[in-house]
Write a structure and sequence with these properties.
Strand order of the largest sheet: 1-3-2
Shape: globular
Structural class: mainly alpha
Number of helices: 7
Number of domains: 1
Distance between the termini: 20 Å
Pfam families: KH_NucS_shadow
Protein name: SCO5389 family protein
Organism: Streptomyces meridianus
Helix content: 55-70%
Largest sheet: 3 strands, antiparallel
Strand content: 5-15%
Radius of gyration: 16 Å
Length: 130
Amino acid sequence: MSLDVSPALLERAERGEVDEAEFIDCVRNSLPYAWQLISSLVARLEVDGGEFADNQVPPPDEQARGQLLRALASDAIRGALQRHFGVRLAFQNCHRVAAFPLDASADERLARFTSVRGQLLNQSPTLRDC
């Protein structure tokens, strides 16, 4: 299961649309490792500036890795995180997450990061089974 959804939130979803703030709270509580990692990237981007902020440290365990994969593989979760934090998120391998500013100047950097070339250059034998 990707998220720990409370019965009350599930009931609201069954009746109709759910407030995105409630969904974000569910993500934050269900995927704490992913939330913390993305929050820290966004904070680093805001404080340090730069072209983007990324993480190159593998998750500490399989549970954390699973959280990160679930957060970024789900269009709904990823989209809600991007809207909440005001960034574009990109993902390579099993742990390399990057946060890019939303401004048009970041489009080229994002395209390089998410390109086939960028993916190939980010490969390593140590990441083979990550």
